[in-house]
């Protein structure tokens, strides 16, 4: 950050001096490029950062410009009053466009938002108030303390001040906990929800932000050109915008700005060959998507990673148990599952399953593949609703709670098929879980940015502590997918523990681990229990289950067929029958360290 300050300052000074070297035409081109850069930031936020395919960005732009035009020419409002209302309108439209994103994602969302952009275009071309296909001309020159903003040179300074603020805010949001949550949602919305992210609110936030940036761009455009017409907000321009963001690098705000400026300039150069230009953009976009999906801005990171990979290997350190321990309250029930059933179409995955886990217990859940173990976790963590039955957490009925609410109530989980955020670093994965604020907290980003910075710093400190505790400090900057399986599993447990849960659900945490890793896992789970966390663990490794668990629940075809201390359960004839062929597993002696020795 500190290294970037001189760079930013230098760029700022260069931007300030730029008009002195430009003729009138070039100045105009640059003015338009700045508007596109603002649009690029908006699209980068919603699509690159939050992963929401948004082809309506051009409509947000249009709403900003047209509202300004209509209110100044038809309603006689002053330019800046109209501008404020235009921003409000763009934000409102962003809010409305976000509604489909609550239901559909990816290319479906692309089609819906494209439809909305077309509807807008259709409206402005046909509505009398919007001047139909001729558009609206003769917008007033924005007044500014006697400065003549009809000059492209002077208007440029208004633009870059607005642009600098807009860019700084976008960079701030992306680096702050909110941006991290948005990126986590982009990478894996299910896992993000399990960590307490309110997915619907986050999606709305992303669209509102892009609406805001679209609106700002629209207002500046209206003030600059003082004429609005449908073709500026056409689908062709939407694709140009998309090309800017993809070529620049959608996951990086600076990349989006770069792409927007570069393409705006190229477009001007190629203005006499517009047909070929379209073809050219298309080709470049395809090449980028295939060969450099992270765009121009992603190239340095790509090279850097290659360089890092050739350096020495990081090392996994051992887990440091929590110092303070919370003594379990004897007899207190941590989790109670009452007669829960779950049906998938014809299949009864859970059939009146009941289970009571006491405070401070390590409970094993075993059973053949497909017996409903993961489904049970999905119900307890709020991913599935159960038709029948109740789930109680420390006596409180939490049936039907959404994942984020359960996460806030103290339920943490890992996933059978690891769900780490692939494009976030290990440290960021932990940070997402450490942030326990609600989405409603985001008003502070506008009003109290310093509180956000302070919180961010606090979280950073906690993350470093936790990484140290789990022996992961040397992997802090690594991307999870580049790590060996055993380390990824450890990261996932660390991430779950970052939430400070009361109940930890581990879904086959030993799958894919070697003997030594399983032994270490057992140590960690015991230490977590000793720190006051109740653990429910689904596991196939019977040696581990036998040595680790206080009680074991056996599921078979969605029904509980046995429940009790490991040794008693292992002797139940039904259990042996369910495990027929796997019976050697059950007779394993109760110490996993023997496994490790082999
Ligand atoms: P386990 O974790 O014990 O191996 P699961 O809970 O994953 O078993 O699955 C139990 C049964 O429910 C399986 O037959 C599985 O195919 C089915 N099932 C699980 N999730 C779904 C789903 N989302 N849709 C349809 N069937 C499912
Ligand atoms: Mg499973």
Can you tell me about this structure?
The chain is an alpha/beta fold and 598 residues long. It is built from 25 helices and ten strands. The protein has helices at residues 4-17, 24-49, 57-73, 79-101, 106-126, 152-175, 177-187, 189-194, 199-225, 235-248, 253-269, 274-291, 295-309, 373-380, 403-408, 426-434, 443-447, 449-469, 485-498, 515-530, 542-548, 566-570, 573-578, 583-586, 592-597, and strands spanning 333-344, 347-358, 362-366, 388-393, 396-397, 411-413, 503-507, 534-538, 551-556, 559-564. Strand 9 (551-556) and strand 10 form a beta hairpin. Mean pLDDT is 88; it is low at 583-598.
Give a short summary of the structure.
With 598 residues, this protein is α/β, with parallel strands linked by helices. It has helices at residues 4-17, 24-49, 57-73, 79-101, 106-126, 152-175, 177-187, 189-194, 199-225, 235-248, 253-269, 274-291, 295-309, 373-380, 403-408, 426-434, 443-447, 449-469, 485-498, 515-530, 542-548, 566-570, 573-578, 583-586, 592-597; strands spanning 333-344, 347-358, 362-366, 388-393, 396-397, 411-413, 503-507, 534-538, 551-556, 559-564.
Q: What keyword list fits this structure?
A:
disordered C terminus; binds magnesium ion; 4-stranded antiparallel β-sheet; 57% helix; 598 residues; alpha/beta
What is the percentage of strand-forming residues?
5-15%
Low-confidence stretches: 583-598
C-alpha Rg (nearest Å): 28 Å
Q: Report mean pLDDT, rounded to a whole number.
A: 88
Helix content: 55-70%
Number of strands: 10
Give the biggest beta sheet: 6 strands, mixed
Characterize the overall form: elongated
Q: What structural category characterises the helix and strand content?
A: alpha/beta
Q: Which molecules are bound in this entry?
A: adenosine-5'-diphosphate, magnesium ion
Count of helix runs: 25
How do the strands line up in the largest sheet? Answer: 6-7-8-3-9-10
Task: Report the end-to-end length measured between terminal Cα atoms.
Answer: 49 Å
């Amino acid at each position: 950050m500190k290294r970037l300050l001189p760079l930013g300052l230098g760029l700022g000074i260069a931007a300030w001096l730029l008009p002195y070297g430009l003729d009138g035409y070039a100045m105009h081109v640059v003015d338009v490029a700045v508007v596109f850069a603002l649009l690029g930031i908006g699209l980068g936020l919603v699509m690159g950062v939050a992963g929401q395919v948004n082809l309506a960005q051009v409509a947000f732009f249009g709403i900003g410009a047209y509202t300004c035009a209509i209110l100044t020419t038809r309603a006689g409002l002053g330019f800046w009053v109209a501008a404020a209302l235009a921003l409000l309108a763009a934000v409102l439209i962003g809010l409305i466009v976000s509604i489909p994103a609550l239901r559909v994602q990816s290319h479906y969302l692309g089609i819906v938002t494209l439809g909305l952009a077309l509807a807008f275009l259709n409206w402005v071309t046909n509505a009398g108030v919007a001047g139909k296909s001729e558009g609206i001309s003769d917008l007033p020159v924005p007044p500014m303390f006697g400065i003549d903003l009809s000059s492209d040179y002077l208007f440029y300074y208004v633009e870059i001040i607005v642009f600098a603020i807009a860019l700084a805010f976008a960079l701030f949001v992306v680096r702050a906990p909110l941006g991290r949550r948005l990126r986590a949602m982009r990478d894996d919305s299910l896992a993000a929800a399990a960590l307490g992210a309110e997915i619907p609110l986050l999606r709305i936030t992303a669209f509102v932000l892009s609406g805001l940036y679209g609106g700002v761009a629209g207002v500046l455009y209206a003030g600059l050109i003082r004429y609005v017409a449908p073709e500026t907000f056409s689908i062709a321009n939407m694709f140009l915008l998309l090309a800017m963001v993809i070529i620049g690098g959608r996951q990086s705000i600076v990349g989006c700005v770069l792409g927007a400026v570069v393409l705006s300039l190229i477009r001007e150069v190629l203005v006499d060959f517009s047909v070929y230009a379209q073809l050219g953009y298309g080709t470049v976009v395809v090449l980028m998507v295939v060969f450099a999906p992270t765009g121009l801005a992603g190239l340095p990171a790509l090279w850097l990673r290659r360089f890092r990979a050739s350096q020495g290997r990081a090392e996994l350190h051992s887990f440091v148990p929590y110092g303070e321990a919370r003594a379990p309250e004897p007899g207190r029930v941590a989790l109670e599952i009452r007669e829960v059933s779950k049906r998938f179409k014809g299949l009864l995955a859970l059939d009146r399953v009941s289970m009571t886990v006491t405070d401070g217990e390590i409970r094993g859940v075993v059973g053949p593949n497909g017996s409903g173990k993961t489904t049970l976790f999905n119900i307890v963590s709020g991913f599935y609703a159960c038709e029948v039955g109740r789930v109680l957490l420390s006596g409180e009925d939490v049936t039907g709670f959404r994942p984020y609410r359960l996460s806030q109530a103290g339920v943490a989980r890992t996933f059978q098929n690891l769900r780490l955020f692939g494009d976030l670093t290990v440290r960021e994965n932990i940070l997402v879980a450490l942030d326990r604020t609600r989405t409603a907290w985001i008003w502070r980003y506008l009003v109290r940015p310093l509180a956000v910075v302070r919180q961010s710093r606090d979280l950073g400190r906690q993350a470093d502590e936790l990484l140290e505790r789990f022996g992961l400090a040397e992997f802090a900057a690594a991307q999870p997918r580049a790590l060996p399986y055993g380390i990824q599993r450890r990261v996932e447990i660390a991430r779950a523990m970052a939430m400070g849960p009361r109940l930890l659900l581990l879904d086959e945490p030993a799958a894919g681990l070697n003997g030594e890793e399983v032994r270490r896992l057992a140590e960690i789970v015991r230490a977590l229990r000793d720190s006051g966390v109740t653990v429910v663990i689904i596991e196939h490794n019977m040696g581990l289950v036998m040595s680790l668990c206080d009680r074991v629940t056996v599921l078979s075809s969605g029904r509980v067929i046995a429940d009790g201390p490991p040794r008693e359960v292992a002797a139940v004839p039904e259990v042996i029958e369910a495990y027929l062929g796997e019976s050697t597993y059950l007779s394993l002696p109760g110490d996993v360290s023997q496994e490790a020795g082999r």
